[in-house]
Amino acid sequence: MSFFSGYCRRQLRFALPLLLALVVSDFASCAWASEDDRVDLASDRLIWTPTALATPPQKFSFRTVNLGFWHFGFKLNENWDVGFQTIPPFGFFALGPTVRFRKEIQPGLSIGAFGNVGVLYLFVLDNEFDNVDTTALYFGGGPLVSAGNGQRALNFSVLTYGGHAAGSTGYVVIPSVGGNLQVSNSIKLNLEVMTFLMPQQKSNAEIWAVMYGIRLFGGHMHGDIAFLAPVGSGVGSLYKVSPLGIPVLQFGASW
């Protein structure tokens, strides 16, 4: 827990000054921003969950989560986005492609799907793990339904994530509902509620989580300062260390 406590404190020391700076810049942008600068270029996701919403015409994008997860995207056309995600080699390395499909079936209502697959390689192990397989295959994806637009939206998804390593396969199904609301030229509030289901496990224990945060955007840049708040028995000690939940910082750009 001491490692986690230090991690949370470092994230918050980095996030809070940034939040203040971006909020100040938001007030300044009210006077100077054009209509094009007021568009959320990251409307293809809430905080973590992808949406089926249309994205602006920018072709290239990237984002990073807590500086440890990177995604690079390319917009093929109005309906298809492709990309790849990676984790820099700090003890382990991951790399794999992603794809997102979306289609507006009537004004204000879109359906879609997201998918990804890749390889995770762990290359820092203690001697006692020398015989452990250090390579794993991961995969994920599922359907998306979004109602609304880039200023306000509701999003529903049922995503499945899994992995295969050392001859064993496991997966988790994550139904989620969420939404967002743009409250100023360059500030949007995001909220997600999700549960984690593990059909291969005999236990029927329910695991829930809430993700909430603020997005600041303008021009080509955007940033999320958010928190992951687990709900359930046995998580009380987490909030003694980090009362707001686990910090999730995301930054990105599109052009």
Keywords:
Porin; 2 helices; 12 strands; 255 residues; single chain; twelve-stranded antiparallel beta barrel; mainly beta; 15% helix
Give a quick rundown of the structure.
The protein is mainly beta and 255 residues long. 15% of the residues lie in helices and 53% in strands.
CATH fold node name: Porin
Query: How are strands sequenced across the largest beta sheet?
Result: 1-2-3-4-5-6-7-8-9-10-11-12
CATH domain class name: Mainly Beta
Biggest beta sheet attributes = 12 strands, antiparallel, barrel
Explained architecture:
- The protein is mainly beta and 255 residues long.
- It has a single domain (2-254), classed as monomeric porin ompg (Porin), CATH 2.40.160.40.
- The chain is built from two helices and twelve strands.
- It has helices at 2-32, 236-241, and strands at 60-65, 69-75, 80-87, 92-106, 109-122, 135-148, 152-165, 168-182, 187-196, 207-218, 221-231, 246-254.
- A twelve-stranded antiparallel barrel has the order 1-2-3-4-5-6-7-8-9-10-11-12.
- A hairpin with a 4-residue loop joins β2 and β3 (80-87).
- The longest helix has 31 residues, at 2-32.
- The protein is globular, with a radius of gyration of 19 Å.
- The mean pLDDT is 84.
Write the layout of secondary structure elements.
Elements: H1 2-32, E1 60-65, E2 69-75, E3 80-87, E4 92-106, E5 109-122, E6 135-148, E7 152-165, E8 168-182, E9 187-196, E10 207-218, E11 221-231, H2 236-241, E12 246-254
Antiparallel strand pairs: 1-2, 1-12, 2-3, 3-4, 4-5, 5-6, 6-7, 7-8, 8-9, 9-10, 10-11, 11-12
